[in-house]
């Protein structure tokens, strides 16, 4: 099973990029974040031609997540359970089940806007995610939680001088909330196959970040224990950032082997 995650920074603007990626890579699931449109405006027909169905949780102009699949899926959640209603109004989570695996697609709040209240919202979202993950793990569910976490877990996950001290992506509370997910028993897929060194998934449009390779690793896939045992590879599709009019993120592709008999 192959699962890709990609913050596309507008599904309509990047529809051609997405369709080309589907034709080239053929993941079983493509998890999209920041689609920036309501479901009725999502360019599903462009992906249907490649054999992919679409499940969408959209929002006008902001946020939005979608799952493109070439295998049958069942939607289990269209919002993250346990959120305050004000946070739940934002289209940031969709969860599906396929082949006995639950896959949560998430677009976690950045936390740098709205002052301390905005940051507290980020932490509340992360807390609700951990609580939901704990419930699923307690039920012995095979689980993938993938998407744009807006978290650099360690200093190696951002290039020097790309983030100011105190940025919401690297604050102590942010990293502690991410560690809570790991301590539940989830595995950071990329770090399982590449324990050290930079492996960026995002380069800002400003300040020459892409040509100078001043990136961040903020797109992650976390795996429950049995899925971590099936992990075969994690590939960052870095070349997508060099495309014409690219997203500022690139896809991350996780490949899982067959379930043991």
From TrEMBL:
Basic and acidic residues bias: start-end ranges = 238-247
Keywords in alphabetical order, please.
Hydrolase, Magnesium, Manganese, Metal-binding
- Name its GO BP terms in alphabetical order: DNA repair
- Residue positions binding Mg(2+): 7, 34, 148, 150, 248-249
Q: What protein name applies here?
A: Exodeoxyribonuclease III
Marked site (Transition state stabilizer) residue numbers: 150
Q: What class of enzyme is it?
A: hydrolase
Q: Which PANTHER family match?
A: EXODEOXYRIBONUCLEASE III
Keyword Magnesium assigned to the entry: answer is yes
- Which residue positions does UniProt flag as site: Important for catalytic activity? 219
Q: Determine the domain of life of the protein's source.
A: Bacteria
Q: What is its EC number?
A: 3.1.11.2
| Cofactor comment text | Probably binds two magnesium or manganese ions per subunit.
């Amino acid at each position: 099973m192959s699962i890709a995650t990609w913050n596309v920074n507008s599904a309509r603007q990047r529809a051609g990029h997405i369709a080309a990626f589907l034709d080239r890579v053929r993941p079983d699931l493509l998890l999209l974040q920041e689609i920036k449109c309501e479901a009725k405006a999502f360019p599903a027909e462009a992906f249907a031609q490649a054999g992919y169905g679409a499940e969408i949780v959209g929002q006008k102009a902001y946020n939005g997540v979608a799952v493109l699949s070439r295998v049958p899926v069942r939607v289990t959640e269209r919002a993250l359970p346990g959120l305050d209603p004000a946070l739940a109004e934002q289209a940031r989570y969709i969860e599906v089940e396929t082949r006995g695996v639950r896959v949560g697609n998430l677009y976690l709040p950045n936390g740098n806007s709205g002052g301390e209240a905005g940051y507290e919202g980020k932490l509340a979202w992360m807390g609700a995610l951990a609580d939901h993950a704990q419930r699923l793990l307690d039920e012995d569910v095979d689980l993938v939680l993938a998407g744009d976490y807006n978290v650099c877990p360690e200093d190696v996950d951002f290039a020097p001088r790309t983030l100011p001290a105190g940025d919401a992506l690297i604050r102590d509370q942010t990293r502690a909330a991410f560690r809570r997910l790991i301590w539940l028993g989830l595995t950071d897929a990329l770090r399982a196959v590449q324990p050290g060194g930079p492996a960026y998934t995002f380069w800002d449009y400003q300040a020459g970040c892409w040509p100078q390779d001043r990136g961040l690793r903020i797109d992650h896939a976390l795996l429950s224990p049995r899925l971590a045992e099936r992990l075969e590879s994690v590939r960052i599709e870095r070349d997508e950032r060099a495309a014409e009019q690219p997203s500022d993120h690139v896809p991350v592709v996780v490949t899982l082997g067959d379930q043991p008999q």
